[in-house]
Amino acid sequence: IENNGQGIILYESFGEKAVGTKFHSRSREMPAKFLHCRASGKAILAYLPASRVDDIIDRYELKEMTEETITDYEELLDELAATRSQGYAFNDEEELRGVRAVGVPILDDEEKPLGAISLTAPRSRLDGTSFSDEIPKLLIDTANVIEINYETNDLNID
User: Which terminus of the chain has fewer Cβ atoms in its 10 Å neighbourhood, N or C?
Assistant: First the structure.
């Protein structure tokens, strides 16, 4: 979720072949994350009002985490527009070298972001059509189920 302009991870699940244990342990000690370099963060930013995005960028800047991190304001805005158009965001080694992610927003009925879901994996495990097509579709389907359940629970329908 977005909290004061940074991303906070509410839940993480690790598979049996998970890597980067030390990185994730450090992440849990300092859970706030920049939004501009994460797939889930860009998925959230894409649906925030432009003034809120500007406030977040003004406050935290577009810090370079790797050579692939978007640090140009106009380039980020273009990427957020693409995210809105396609329904998902990519992180292609922007936060951590060798790591890719796909993120999808979870939206309320007014298309305001409630949060996002993402799948992160080493570049070698998340490549080709898996990265560009298959994972985005699975995440969009999953986000849709979450949104329906959220709306159903919000309306107190059993």
Answer: C
- How far, in Å, CA of 150 to CA of 124, rounded? 34
Segments in 30-134 forming alpha helices (H): 39-45, 50-60, 73-86, 128-129
What string of DSSP letters covers 89-100? EEEESSSSTTEE
CA 74-70-67 angle, to 5 degrees, is: 145
Distance CA 133, CA 124 (A): 16
Q: What is the tens place of the pLDDT at every residue in 70-90?
A: 999 999 999 999 999 999 999
Taking the CB of residue 12, how many other CB atoms lie within 10 A of it? 10
Q: Tell whether the model's pLDDT for residue 155 goes beyond 50.
A: no
Rounded Cα–Cα distance for residues 115 and 107 (Å): 7
User: Is residue 1 helix, strand or coil?
Assistant: coil
Q: Hey, what are 31's tokens?
A: 């859970």
